[in-house]
Amino acid sequence: MKRIVATILVLAANSAWGCPGYLDQTYRQLHSKDSINLCEAYEGQPMLVVNTASHCGFRGQFGELEELYQTYRDRGLAVVGFASDDFNQEADTEKEAADVCRVNYGVSFTMIAPMPVTGDNANPLFSMIRSEGEGPEWNFYKYVLNPEGELTASFPSRGCALRRGTGRCC
Asked: pLDDT (tens digit, 9 = 90+) per residue, 70-123?
């Protein structure tokens, strides 16, 4: 997670904002009737986007992501988790998924209701990520978007930062 922090802090500097269409989307929040538009909520902020699943062996990263969010949110960090069952590890109900996040790990960052993050049905943000050659190969892949909404780094479920376009570690 230290590399993620370093990458995000570099991006937190002032920048011009022109919200790209793949971020100008409204998503329903996990186990809620409330929705959030990513452009309206996080205009000009760096974002850490993560595809999650509540029954994945990497679910302990919810706690690490929350710690990262609590430490850096006052400096502009936005963390957005996209629950997904694309790898067959999401809870059967949104209530159960929300309990794993919020009760077990204290998640307060934005969590989006389950939706596809891979394949032809992926939501627009993950379609853009895939078009950059960086689509998730498993749960808890992390993507850093700069304040302009451009993909600047990706981090697999575990291990090192990936070099853009190579799939190899830095």
From this structure: 999 999 999 999 999 999 999 999 999 999 999 999 999 999 999 999 999 999
CA angle, 62 then 64 then 66, to 5°: 70
What Rg value do the Cα atoms of the chain yield, rounded?
Answer: 15
Q: Has 56 been annotated as catalytic? A: yes
The separation between CA 49 and the C-alpha centre of its own chain, rounded to angstroms, equals 2
CATH 3.40.190.10 matches 2-12+20-155: no
**How many Å apart are CA 44 and CA 50, to the nearest integer?**
19
Specify the pLDDT at position 158.
81
The per-residue pLDDT for range 125-153, each reduced to its tens digit, is 999 999 999 999 999 999 999 999 999 99
Contact (CB, 8 A) for 139 and 145: no
SS3 state at 155: strand
Q: In whole angstroms, give the CA distance from residue 141 to residue 77.
A: 17
Task: Write down the catalytic residue from 39, 56, 160, 169.
Answer: 56
Angle, helices 2-11 vs 61-72, to 10°: value is 30
- Give domain limits for the chain: 2-12+20-155
